[in-house]
Design a protein that fits this description.
The chain is mainly α. The protein has a single domain (23-99), classed as Cytochrome Bc1 Complex, Chain D, domain 2 (Orthogonal Bundle), CATH 1.10.760. Helices cover 56% and strands 0% of the residues. The chain has helices at residues 2-17, 23-34, 36-39, 62-71, 85-99. Helix 2 (23-34) packs across helix 5.
């Protein structure tokens, strides 16, 4: 009985560790790998404009942000079909969470 309890506890701990990150983490990873180079790791801007709290991006709707990412206005790279809808949603969720900080 005791061995069964230990095994169940062990499996629960392993599964909890394998659950992965939430949407914000997925979006944060996507931002780090695809956006931070131009928009800054802190969303403070650089080559591209700031995206954090108080920026003009904070005033855009979620759909407008997705469209900007897809189309890449001006000098921005157009990401078009490189990101799935789920990735775009996750990226917007990450941006919103950072803008609210």
């Amino acid at each position: 009985m005791r061995l069964a309890l230990v095994l169940v506890s062990f499996v629960a701990v392993v599964l909890a560790g394998c659950s992965g990150g939430g949407v914000d983490e997925f979006g944060g990873d996507l931002y780090s790998s695809s956006c931070a180079h131009c928009h800054g790791s802190d969303l403070g801007g650089g080559i591209g404009p700031a995206l954090g709290a108080g920026s003009s991006a904070a005033d855009l709707t979620d759909q407008q942000i997705k469209n900007v990412v897809r189309i890449g206005p001006g000098a921005m790279t157009a990401f078009g079909d490189r990101f799935s809808e789920e990735q775009l949603e996750s990226l917007v969720t990450f941006l919103r969470s950072e803008q609210d900080s």
